[in-house]
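Good morning,

Attaching, inline, the C-alpha cells for the sequence recovery test we're adding to the shared suite. The designed sequence is right after.
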C-alpha cells in the first residue's frame, strides 16, 4: 500500500548550520499535506549538522544537494535542482520559507514547473488548501492551487514548531549548474557589523524601537535594555527611515516576522504594517508617552511615560533582579 504523498520542504540554515525556525515551522505545517521531505542545498558539508534536527521535526527523508559552486551562485541553481526533484518525485506540494531568497526561489520554481504559487501561507488543510494572510495580516484568505505542483511560500512566525521524531534517510541529489546560472555570480560579500546579539528572527526576546525614540541617548538606553534581556533589536519602518536602526532590524509587513516570548515595543505607535510582523509574540510590553497610542490596545502590559526615564529604570530593575 502506498504511503502518503511527499511534500518537499526547502530547508534554510543558520550561519551555524542549524535549520531556521521558519524551516521547522514549515516541516510542522507540511505534515497536514503529506510526508515531509527536507531539501538541503549548499556547499559541501553545509548539511552535516542539519539532518538530525530536520528529522526531529518530521523529515523522514533529507535530500542533500551540495556543490562548491553554490557558494557563489544566486537562486538559479537551486531552482534547477528543485525543478528536477518535482519532475522526478511528483510531490503533493513544495513549501519554501518566505525569506528574501526563499520567495525568489519559490516564484521561479512555480514559473519553471508551470505551477500555481501562494505567498504568505500560514497553514494548510488536509484537502490541500492553504490559509494566507493578506493586506498586512489584517485579512485571512483560504486558497487552493489548481495548476501543477502547488508551491507555497511559508510566512515565518506563524506557528510553534512541534517535534515529530523519525529516523531519516539521507539521499544525495546531483547539483548541475546551467550555463545561465553560471552567468550570474556573487562576486563579493560584505559582512555586517557583529552585534553580539541573537538573530532577530530566532530571538526569544526582542526590544524594538519606533518613531518615539528620537535621540542617540534614548537609542543607547534601549540597547542597554536589550543587552540586559539578552534580546535582539527590532525597529519600525519609521525608525529605519530615520536612521535609528539599519534595515536588517526592520520588523513588519516589509521586514521580518518575529515570534519571541517577549516583545518590548519602545516608542512604537502600533501601526498595522508593523504589527503584522509581531502577531506571533507571546507577551508584548509597550512603552509610550502617548496614553492614546494604538499599541496599548495590542499590548499585554503598557507603561505610559517618557522613554528617557522609563527604559533606564527598567534596565536597572532587571539588572538588580539578576544580581
Amino acid at each position: 500500500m502506498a504511503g502518503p504523498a511527499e511534500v518537499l520542504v526547502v530547508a534554510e540554515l543558520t550561519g551555524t548550520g542549524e535549520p531556521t525556525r521558519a524551516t521547522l515551522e514549515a516541516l510542522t505545517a507540511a505534515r497536514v499535506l503529506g510526508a515531509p521531505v527536507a531539501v538541503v542545498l549548499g556547499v559541501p558539508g553545509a548539511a552535516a549538522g542539519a539532518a538530525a534536527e530536520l528529522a526531529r521535526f518530521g523529515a523522514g527523508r533529507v535530500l542533500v544537494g551540495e556543490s562548491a559552486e553554490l557558494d557563489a551562485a544566486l537562486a538559479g541553481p537551486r531552482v534547477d535542482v528543485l525543478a528536477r526533484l518535482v519532475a522526478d518525485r511528483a510531490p503533493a506540494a513544495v513549501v519554501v520559507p518566505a525569506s528574501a531568497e526563499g520567495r525568489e526561489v519559490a516564484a521561479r520554481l512555480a514559473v519553471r514547473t508551470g505551477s500555481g504559487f501562494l505567498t504568505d501561507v500560514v497553514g494548510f488543510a488536509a484537502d490541500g488548501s492553504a490559509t494566507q494572510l493578506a493586506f498586512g495580516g489584517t485579512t485571512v484568505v483560504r486558497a487552493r492551487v489548481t495548476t501543477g505542483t502547488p508551491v507555497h511560500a511559508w510566512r515565518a512566525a506563524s506557528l510553534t514548531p512541534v517535534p515529530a521524531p523519525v529516523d531519516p534517510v539521507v539521499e544525495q541529489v546531483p547539483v548541475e549548474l546551467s550555463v545561465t546560472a553560471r552567468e550570474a555570480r556573487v562576486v563579493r560579500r560584505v559582512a555586517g557589523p557583529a552585534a553580539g546579539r541573537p538573530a532577530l528572527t530566532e530571538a526569544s526576546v526582542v526590544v524594538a524601537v519606533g518613531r518615539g525614540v528620537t535621540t542617540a541617548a534614548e537609542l543607547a538606553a534601549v540597547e542597554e535594555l536589550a543587552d540586559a534581556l539578552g534580546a535582539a533589536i527590532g525597529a519600525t519602518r519609521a525608525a529605519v527611515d530615520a536612521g535609528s536602526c539599519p534595515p536588517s532590524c526592520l520588523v513588519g509587513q516589509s521586514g521580518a516576522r518575529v515570534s519571541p516570548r517577549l516583545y518590548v515595543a519602545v516608542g512604537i505607535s502600533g501601526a498595522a504594517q508593523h504589527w503584522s510582523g509581531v502577531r506571533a509574540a507571546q507577551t508584548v510590553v509597550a512603552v509610550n508617552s502617548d496614553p492614546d497610542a494604538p499599541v496599548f490596545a495590542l499590548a499585554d502590559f503598557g507603561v505610559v511615560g517618557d522613554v528617557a526615564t522609563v527604559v533606564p529604570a527598567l534596565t536597572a530593575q532587571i539588572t538588580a533582579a539578576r544580581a
